[in-house]
Amino acid sequence: MHSDHNKESLVLIRSVKRGLILHFLFFKDEIRDFDAIAKGEDIKLPSEQLELGRGLIEKMSSPDFEPERYADEYRERALAMIEKKVKGNARRKQDDGRD
């Protein structure tokens, strides 16, 4: 179990290469049967709306997705705060002469 933002989550932690990966899983009550999900088969859209939607998808699509262009800024700030805290504790231990 993992708690984040006052909500417990079911997670799986597994070893990959030289690190750990945390996978969020679903609780049973969060999973619906695929047949129970509305898929919009009965919806009829005007051809103009379909053309607009297809045009937007085409404009926003790129065959050259570059994940390195994106950064998890929240994670970077959290790691920086942790590193600052670790360094602060290391200095305090040196000042105190305790280990």
Task: Give a quick summary of the entry.
The protein is of the alpha+beta class. The protein contains 2 helices and 3 strands, in the order βββαα.
Could you please describe the fold and organization of this structure?
By secondary structure, this protein is of the alpha+beta class. Helix content is 38%, strand content 20%. The protein has two helices and three strands. A three-stranded antiparallel β-sheet has the order 1-2-3, with no helix packed on it. Strand 2 (7-16) and strand 3 (19-25) form a beta hairpin. The chain is elongated, with a radius of gyration of 24 Å.
Report the mean per-residue pLDDT as an integer.
Answer: 82
Estimated share of beta-strand residues: 15-25%
The percent of residues in helical segments reads 25-40%
Q: Number of helical segments?
A: 2
What are the segments in which pLDDT stays under 50 over at least 5 consecutive residues? Answer: none
Strand order of the largest sheet: 1-2-3
Distance between the termini: 33 Å
Quantity of strands, as a count: 3
Structural class: alpha+beta
Order of helices and strands: EEEHH
* Cα gyration radius (Å): 24 Å
Largest sheet, in brief, is:
3 strands, antiparallel
Shape: elongated
Outline the fold blueprint.
Layout: E1 2-4, E2 7-16, E3 19-25, H1 47-60, H2 73-96
Antiparallel strand pairs: 1-2, 2-3
Features:
3 strands; 99 residues; 3-stranded antiparallel beta sheet; alpha+beta; 38% helix
